[in-house]
Amino acid sequence: MSRTLLNFWLDTTMLVLFLAWLWLAFVVRFVFPPGTLAEGWLLWGLTYDQWFEFEFWALCVFALAVLIHIMLHWTWVCGVITSRLLRSRDGTKRQWTDGERTLFGVGLMVVLFNVLGLAFAAAMLMVQQPGM
Length: 132
What we know:
The chain is mainly alpha-helical. It contains four helices and two strands, in the order αββααα. It has a two-stranded antiparallel sheet with strand order 1-2. A hairpin with a 2-residue loop joins strand 1 and strand 2 (46-47). The longest helix is centred in the N-terminal third of the chain and has 29 residues, at 3-31. The protein is flat, with a radius of gyration of 21 Å. It starts with a helix and ends in a 6-residue tail after the last helix.
């Protein structure tokens, strides 16, 4: 399969996943009452919690597709960063090797996942139970 065709099908898949995620979010937000009041409500035999679970997994699959999309365009991303943001001291464009791009990408992913993990840990530590 050509790179162009791969990108086309990935982008098409991302569009379908995004629309599914959007539809699920609207169902959870506007069809059901708020989560605390949704006990016993059903849509097509599924509870609020089950629809919310579908929404979460749709988000996860969409995020995976976005990650793959970024990986397939990593050379372009690095090119934009180096040509627009990171110039040499004399103002010329800097060319990165494949190894440098890989290290930059892995480092960026480590930083981003650590920030997300720290934010999640902060939420877990600061959540308040009823009556406390």
